[in-house]
Please model this.
Amino acid sequence: MLIRTTTGELYKDYVQRMQRIADLRYANAVLQWDQETYLPKKGAGFRGQQLATLGELAHEFFTAGTMGNLLEELGSRTDLDPLQLRNIELSKYDYEKSVKLPSGFVRKMSEQVTKSYHAWVIARRQNSFALFQPELEQLTALKKQEADYLGYENHPYNALLNDYEKGSNVQWLDGIFGKLLVPLKTLVDSVLDQQQNEVADPLAQYFPKDVQWAFCNDLLSQMGFDTDMGRQDLSEHPFTTSFSPQDVRITTRIDEHNLGYMTWSTLHELGHAWYEQGLPIEEYGLPLGEACSLSIHESQSRFWENCIGRSPAFCEWLLPVICKHFPEQMKGVSAGQLYQSLNKVKPSLIRTEADELTYHFHVMIRYEIEKKLMAGDLQVVDIPILWKELYFKHLGIKVPDDKHGCLQDIHWSHGSFGYFPTYSLGSFYAVQIFESIKQKQIPTEEDIRSGNFSGILQWLQQKVHTKGRFLDTDALCFSVCEKGLDSAIFVNYAMGKFLP
Amino acid sequence: MLIRTTTGELYKDYVQRMQRIADLRYANAVLQWDQETYLPKKGAGFRGQQLATLGELAHEFFTAGTMGNLLEELGSRTDLDPLQLRNIELSKYDYEKSVKLPSGFVRKMSEQVTKSYHAWVIARRQNSFALFQPELEQLTALKKQEADYLGYENHPYNALLNDYEKGSNVQWLDGIFGKLLVPLKTLVDSVLDQQQNEVADPLAQYFPKDVQWAFCNDLLSQMGFDTDMGRQDLSEHPFTTSFSPQDVRITTRIDEHNLGYMTWSTLHELGHAWYEQGLPIEEYGLPLGEACSLSIHESQSRFWENCIGRSPAFCEWLLPVICKHFPEQMKGVSAGQLYQSLNKVKPSLIRTEADELTYHFHVMIRYEIEKKLMAGDLQVVDIPILWKELYFKHLGIKVPDDKHGCLQDIHWSHGSFGYFPTYSLGSFYAVQIFESIKQKQIPTEEDIRSGNFSGILQWLQQKVHTKGRFLDTDALCFSVCEKGLDSAIFVNYAMGKFLP
Model:
């Protein structure tokens, strides 16, 4: 049957099927977004069931035998254009990965994720890992089963790592983190010795919630976030989600005693959102309409949060914007002071509030724990103990409780084991892209100082966003930076910035 | 195959299939809710596609041949309990109606509804029916096609009327409205003669949006709305939607120059929401977990909006609540004045702001227009002209523009032709239920005066909400009121209230 059909017709059939699946996945994303922003407490039960049904259906449709045959036949055609060819190639890769997971398992996982998420919210609120533990145990067992379904060599964690970041594995990451550990520790120690540790942080004052919210929306608007194709809301844990490139949502959380948390988290999510908004709309539902990889996604958020957002030029631009909303709190504060406080290196408890250097210890700690957990060398119940040990070992600090320890991140409640390493990878890619932009003589500094971000954004759109998944992570890095991933570039950047 | 399976197994299969379909339908409702509350402007296109996919899938699953066979087989079993039997009976009815509509048609309709809705929003904003007309023409053509698919006797409108209110048709409604017209006109004329028309309306002042919002949430909380299983948001047009009995959402709209609009619209939606929250949770996804009918749904909203909300006792309770939020505006206003202003009869332009009497002319006008439109006796382009004629004929007023005319309601943009009559029917049922409660000596008046609404709510839950679709509209009315629908009871109630 298929053999006698023209390639054009087959490809059209493929696009229609993929878009139908995308509709289900994006609907799922809407339900998840609502779950984390507006869902009434008791609505969680049926919402979990609804999410599971949508997830299961999307999986069923994508893994259907007819889809496999269609991809097989299209893959053998010689008259696809390069974009079509790449879509088919990527869909075949995704298909082969997806068929390894039975539909019933996908449903079970989705239901367990909902339960775990709600348990995590309560556990975090009540500052008690014990309330999360039983659900996390169930979830961990399922993730091990998932690793078995997906298959792996050497280490079960590899299956999950590869799922989030194609090609990544324990050996490779051990190498990267191993190479980073000593220079980074040395750098942190030097900075801690040299920096003025007594300077008061102007962002650690009382900033009322509603004024922060107004400031935040003003900031987004001045940065150029297009609210005709996106919006911002509040949630327990900041995130970005997308229902199409024309409807990208970010969330933030407000700490009334620190303006920095909301502000740089917003810049972070803005970077993610711009990436999603910049994906090619005509490829909706197809691989080329998706982001290259999680690490490249993270490079976009870390780029705006750190490389731009924590630069001297940005501080010069930002200060008057903050002052407009908080004239009292910011009285007498200089851009230099703002820059100092933003870039103060300080071993701390919370990953999302960490400085650019110590941040990676937070990631490495989670990486170690996940690796042990997946290998069966660590029981869920022992996570808090190991967490405390590692924070003391790497950062020299004592973790007072679960809320400031292993309950701080949402990821495990979502079953996202293997996700954290992409945060460090993303930071390294961000720095490499940033160095590239500077070499290309895009007048970033003057632009930033005058609040003109469109030139930089356009460059990123052209080099990264519009490419979708056309290039693999490594190839994209080469095409943008003329070399592959190299954490030494990050260390150089960090030395230049923190030990001037 | 089916014949050899036990009834218990078959019924379980039925429940699972129905719940899966319900998950899709409720997901669709979440996407619609989001569309009318938070969707960024440019997100509308893909959202339309996503809604169409979910709608089409739910339809496909429900109309699958296997579902038909399952229902057929279950319908022949003799060992179902009465609740199961009723579920199967109702599902068979729904199934037979649904299979008349091809899946492609359902998708087309869903896509056209999205287009029409967005055209309506813009047309209304710009006060120009011409901007809505092309989309409404497309939609009207589809609705005629739908009537043909569904089948009808005598009048194509009957197919749509029956779709919203099982058993209703043009002949029956002509009878009800015909019987009402003269007594209602006579009553309105008498009231207009007798009432003091110069009394100033204390609710027609400036009430800032944010204070109205705080008041509204306070009102809901004091009335007993459980925000653990529901919430309120703002939208262009107030509505109630449900994603399960444990997640029921209402919306409202704020007019800063009139406190009444938001307040009584909230009471109206609260009535709908309480009905949805009171449906039996264990019947999720099954007919018995659904509301009896649209007119009974409307009876619950009109009950709280009018029978309770516009009563003297309620005014006594409400006044201090309003005063707490608006001490300046309400200075010197008495409960009696509030009651007078709430129940002032005045022919007006906007249905949702109409008094209890003239309201029904608004409905009858829409009914006449829809009847002609479906019969092909009226072209879409001529709606504004006929609208103006009928408003002058029935209410003696001139319609200044489309916004205050045929663009005021969202319904046609949703393709809801045949829906409006359920509003009048609902009002009549509301009054009959209200008279019943009073006869049953539930101490409604003292309860209302002291803000204790739980007794009334519990009575409604017991007699109406928890029944789901177990009884048909007529049977439910008999079981609650000991007689069927009789608009004369409404006229009597109205005479007692408005010509004391």
